[in-house]
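Notes from the 1:1 (GR / supervisor)

We went over the backlog. Supervisor wanted to see one worked example end to end before approving the batch request, so GR pasted a single chain during the call. The sequence is below; no edits were made to it. Supervisor asked that the structure be written out right there so they could see what the output format looks like.
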Amino acid sequence: MKNIAVFVFNGFSDWEIAYLCPEINKNEKFELQFFSLSGEDVYSMGGMKIRPNNSLQAINLSDIEMLILPGGTAWEKDENNGIIPLINSTFENGKTIAAICGATIFLGQLGFLDNCKHTSIDYYYLKQSAPNYKGDSFYTNSLAVSDKNIITANGIAPIEFAREIFSRLELFTPVNLEKWFQLYKNGIWAEIAT
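Structure output shown during the call:
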């Protein structure tokens, strides 16, 4: 099984990964690995207590297929800086990094959005919050964007974020992915073949 590493931290935006986790979890090709910096329990913004599988130190980069970074105010408060080496290694090894909301600000500040199409909470907010950001010409005013090995999404787009991740992982056929999206985005039911 291929590991999908999900970074959790105190105050992470639980709803931003709520659509993607169940679908990945029930797929036999992938295993979700939740980790925090220390490996200790964390509380989501919604107050859910999460017991991670691992600490940052226990993460083996060679086992990671994708790194998922949910949003939360901790990114802009520099409370998640300990994850920078893992982000660097993941990127350098060509593995996918999927970031939503505040996590996109962090990637922008670190320079990961300077040379690929991306989105964020808002262009002007990204510019203001990430002074080192230089990816202006690549910014796309979309709910979610995939380019190279980076997936980014606006914080109001957890369904679009999940769709981009599922597409990258080839979790569903294109037809079934569209059916999944229409069900959760627009309430349109169509049988999904398994």
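Supervisor's comment: The chain has one domain: 2-186.
Batch request approved.
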